[in-house]
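Data availability (excerpt). The following record was deposited with the supplementary files.
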Amino acid sequence: MSSPPPASPVAHGLNLAQQEAVNYLHGPCLVLAGAGSGKTRVITHKIGRLIQMGMKPEQIAAITFTNKAAAEMRERAKSLIGKSAKGVLICTFHALGVRMLRQDGAALGLKPQFSILDSDDVTSILKDAGGSTDMATARQWQWTISAWKNQGLNAAQAAAQASGDEEHLVARVMAHYEERLAAYQSVDFDDLIGLPLKLLKEHDSVRAKWQAALGHVLVDEYQDTTATQYDVL
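Predicted structure:
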């Protein structure tokens, strides 16, 4: 029977459940806990634990949902483990998606300098794609298309499952919208999850590269109603 790993010097002040999560290093680990119960603290301590056990900081990714949460985690990691924290990839899902597309988007026809559209840009392009001048209509199209993208659907797949004249119309608008994004070398916010997922699913060499680069992935929180984020994980 193998002996347990030595206690972590950075685990001081953690309760027993938190220590168990920090010290569990030999497979996937799901931590279920409510707000304010120390989930982020567990992750920052686990980063320190992984480095203590010999993993290179560059092989660790810690992912959260908001820029504010990512900045807070970076500060906590820095105060806990010092300069080693600089090498750890601590970012949002969308920032990770940008990094993946900048490096490997060529496999999808994207140039490294692609642009990221804000909500107003998207609305403007949708008005053009759908031949409408009505802002409210374009916004409604935008919400529907975003929901489809978060389910992992492209325009053709959305059209195949559309019900009613309105959804079929939006699916046609989505097809024109996709054409314009490709022509403009642009992506929208939803694409920052959907396109990396496409890379991982359809391009074996890209998937192998990222699996090798990130030896341990820690996730603070994600939108569990968004299928694509779960699929990326």
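Summary of structural features: Residues 115-184 form a domain with the Arc Repressor Mutant, subunit A fold (CATH 1.10.10.160).
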